[in-house]
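Q: What structure does this chain adopt?
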Amino acid sequence: GLADDDIHIVFSTDCSGYQNWQAEALAYSALMVGQQGHITRIVSNCPDDADFAMMRRSSYPNYHVHITPKFSLDEGREYFPYYNKPLGVDHWIKNAVPAV
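A:
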């Protein structure tokens, strides 16, 4: 059967303060209901001065943060912020530590 810690929640955000708050609300909710698995936040489109240490702090013990490049401006494309979602997940799958 499926063990309690076999569930891995993955979600994608940007670096805004609002998204930081939403990410921690999700993590805290998981903690309060007894979620045992891992939670990974994929963060894209961050400014150079982003506080990555703050993003990695969480009330949830199995919380991970994966920082991606800025895909919204990648490879000479026109600016389109929604490239960050699918390309961020792809980047995480290919570069996650530990591997997924």
